[in-house]
Specification:
The chain is an alpha+beta fold and about 90 residues long. It has helices at about 65-70, 75-85, and strands spanning about 10, 20-25, 30-35, 45-50, 55-60. A hairpin with an 8-residue loop joins strand 1 (about 10) and strand 2 (about 20-25).
Amino acid sequence: MLDDVLFRVVYSKAGHDKGKRFAVIGIADDAHVLIVDGDSRKCAKPKRKKLLHLQFENRRIEGLDAALNDKGNTVDAFLRAALCAAGTRD
């Protein structure tokens, strides 16, 4: 079940990052995922966040898996652009 959360856009419901959008790039364990936004949370140092504190959106960031494997530091810029394209939360 947790495999379908990878590369999904999420909205933080709790913590100091409440109200921000992130992308899920990894699964830490059954109750936690690793999230990044390319700005305050770079891909080099993702945030470990409880699933209960996240609201999942239907949107998935296409091409993020390939961007994570590319050499260079372009993945954070790619993430910022993709999350900006997601628009504001209704």
